[in-house]
Amino acid sequence: MAEIRWLTSLDEGFEQATSTGRPVLVDFTAAPT
Amino acid sequence: MRLDTVTYPDPRVAQFVSDHFIPVRVNIREQPELGKTYHIHAAPTTVILDRESEYYRLSGFLPPQDFLAYLIIGRAVADCDRGKYAEAIDALNQLVSQGDGHPVDVLAEAWYWLGRARFKQSGDREAALPSWKVLVERYPQTSWAKRVAYLFE
């Protein structure tokens, strides 16, 4: 079963987006961690 | 929080997110400056973007099937804005071909963007008209149809 592997760094997300050609999906949450 | 407990764990959503996006989770309580930068006024808010542009955003909770449909539209909008017209058209065609399995507002929006993608791909507004005609005829009460209805008056 697929499980989403969330990054926590937007900069890292942008870097991976550049290298993969995929856009970033950001879940802006206020849920307690 | 229902996005976290209900929607993102759904296998169809999780697979689509993993296959089509770089998923990043930002807690705006812990990183309020990012909330300000991206104009996040309520959580949850889901934004599709890259370093250059924001392409699409959703606010609040949606159940898995609806959320997935909007993610498909959002990815297609991003593809279209980045010149990947064929990919956008393929994805939107698949979505509208599923027909009644989706709510009216999803289908109307998908037909709208399908027309936009065909317009942008060809550079000719005529290419959008078949999609927008379907939109206006099937979903005339939606705001998406009203955006283009004047073309058929």
Short description:
With 33 residues, chain A is an alpha+beta fold. Chain A contains 1 helix and 1 strand; from the N terminus they run H-E. Chain A starts with 9 loop residues before the first helix and ends with a strand.
Structural class of chain B: mainly alpha
Which word captures the global form of chain B? globular
Number of strands of chain A: 1
Give the end-to-end Cα distance of chain A, rounded to a whole number of Å. 24 Å
CATH architecture of chain B: Alpha Horseshoe
Mean pLDDT of chain A: 92
The overall strand count of chain B is: 3
pLDDT < 50 stretches of chain B? none
Q: How are the strands of the largest sheet of chain B arranged?
A: 2-3
Quickly count the domains of chain B. 1
CATH topology of chain B: Serine Threonine Protein Phosphatase 5, Tetratricopeptide repeat
Low-confidence stretches of chain A: none
User: Average pLDDT of chain B, to the nearest integer?
Assistant: 95
Sheet with the most strands, sense and barrel status of chain B: 2 strands, antiparallel
Description of the molecule:
- The complex is a heterodimer of chains A (33) and B (153).
- Chain A is an alpha+beta fold and 33 residues long.
- In chain A, 33% of the residues lie in helices and 18% in strands.
- The longest helix of chain A is centred in the middle third of the chain and has 11 residues, at 10-20.
- Chain A is globular and about 30 Å long.
- The model of chain A has no long low-confidence stretch (mean pLDDT 92).
- The termini of chain B are far apart.
- The mean pLDDT of chain B is 95.
- Chain B contains eight helices and three strands.
- Chain B is globular.
- Helix content of chain B is 58%, strand content 11%.
- The longest helix of chain B has 19 residues, at 104-122.
- At the A-B interface, α1 and β1 of A face α2, β1, β2 and α4 of B.
